[in-house]
Amino acid sequence: MSQPLLKVEDLRVEFDTYGGIVQAVRGVSFDVYAGKTLAIVGESGCGKSVTVQSMMGLIPMPPGRIVSGTALMHDVDIIGRKEIDGRDIRGREIGMIFQDPMTSLNPTMSIGDQIAEPLLVHSGYSKKQAFARAVELLDMTRIPEAEKRARQYPFEFSGGMLQRAMIAMAIACEPKMLIADEPTTALDVTIQAQILDLLNDLRRETGMAIILITHDLGVVARMADEVLVMYAGQVVERGSVDDVFYRSSHPYTLGLRAAMPVNDRSAEHTLTPIDGSPPDLFHPPKGCGYCARCPNAMKICEDSDPEVYAMSETHTSRCWQHHPSATVRVAGLHYREVEA
Predict the structure, then answer these.
(1) Is 314 helix (H, G, I), strand (E, B) or coil?
(2) Which residues are within 8 A (CB) of 126 and not within 5 positions of it... i.e. 6 or more apart?
(3) In a domain, 329, yes or no
(4) What is the extent of the structural domain holding 78?
(5) Number of C-alpha atoms within 13 angstroms, CB side, residue 46?
(6) Which CATH number characterizes residue 216's domain?
(7) What's residue 247's pLDDT?
(8) Cα angle 213, 219, 220; round to 5
(9) What is the pTM (predicted TM-score) of this model?
(10) pLDDT tens, 127-179?
(11) Which of 163, 191, 224 is at the close of a domain?
């Protein structure tokens, strides 16, 4: 396999609060390859957004603090840096789509001017050239009457159009990587599908890598090449999309799948919620973070942090149930694949 575009190792992030120190990210490692989509999935508060925001320099410090870790891009650690070889990291090397476009856009500037701004700052365009390119980008993201729309303001756009405008802004400087933080959260299912198709098309056309942050397993199945499942600030399972969906090996992943609707009318399937709540990251558990909610927890799960076990060359799981001496084994879910 080729060298990764981005290699993150042992990233740890903490926040100082009045209640104590929150250990938000606890030793996260992953690779991202050019032209591939890596999905980071998990419930709210598991550390997905903090992981990428910390390496982008977007968490306030203080109260945030990067305790350890590296994020290598072109063999340069980008944590704490603004440039690589004279090129700005944010905007030029890495673009980002935020969760809520309405609060991410300036209500006093036209859409076209906001898309043109990174071209003025990073690429040396004149105002006329930058605005013309902004119109091209809006057209590329399939917004009709792009020239007219470029002169309008955010309040004149629908939610789906605002998200397309955010995508246009993020890809304006042709970054090598695009981070999409819950890009379809506030959109209806029809618009969600259009946005996901658009991101896939842009990835194929430009060869950029995508890091997709989501809690929606349906989005993961549609978009991802590789998947990281996070829980309590740690990566608990990692593998290809087929590994995670059809060969799930961590109880938390199985729990997420059990709560997921299945498109199979012939099968009886009850949506089963995961009982309990995530652990308090002011005082993370001594052992496995999922122990209190795991139906098959053992004594060692409570006392010792699990090792990472290799299920295959592309698939790992952080669970004591894969130890050779374990008395309990992960029981997988097996759903029949249904043709569309």
Answers:
(1) coil
(2) none
(3) no
(4) 6-224
(5) 21
(6) 3.40.50.300
(7) 87
(8) 70
(9) 0.86
(10) 998 999 999 889 888 888 989 999 999 998 888 888 888 888 888 888 889 99
(11) 224
